[in-house]
């Protein structure tokens, strides 16, 4: 691969990730449970690029930081609604088994909003990131135990307690989505 081709590939991946983001944020029927598989694939590919491609991550962060507060709130609300409509209601449109893979991808998308919010001049209230459906429907017992084990191991090695975003998914690493009651 020639040096220019590598830059072109990075630019192409950035464009693909942003196309996916804009599709999710502007195509209403992607919230519908019938579109779960398509939504999952878009989120998965997009999160993969934003996690591992430095340039894409930087551009996404700047995009979200510079967005006006109204649009930022609207986009975050759309991500929240994906959790409510698809994950919590399940494939059949009735409350039942939670699609944990899709939940992971949506929470990872919301992570980028949370990171950008910390850098914004007009920050949203931290409570805007809480998700009542997750707080009321997801059993966090096993994840809290795993998180506790991770923290104890890190502390015993004098390592910082930073749960890597690209490791095995644990909702406790995204504590901004949980309300006080869920954390206790």
Model description:
With 184 residues, this protein is an all-alpha fold. The chain has a domain at 3-129. The protein is 65% helix and 0% strand. It has 8 helices and no strands. Helix 1 (3-26) packs across helix 2 (36-52), helix 2 (36-52) crosses helix 3 and helix 3 crosses helix 5 (100-119). It starts with a helix and ends with a helix.
Protein topology:
Blueprint: H1 3-26, H2 36-52, H3 54-66, H4 69-88, H5 100-119, H6 132-137, H7 141-156, H8 180-183
Short note summarizing the structure:
With 184 residues, the protein is an all-alpha fold. It contains 8 helices and no strands.
Order of H and E elements: HHHHHHHH
Which percent bin holds the helix content? 55-70%
Total number of helices: 8
Low-confidence runs? none
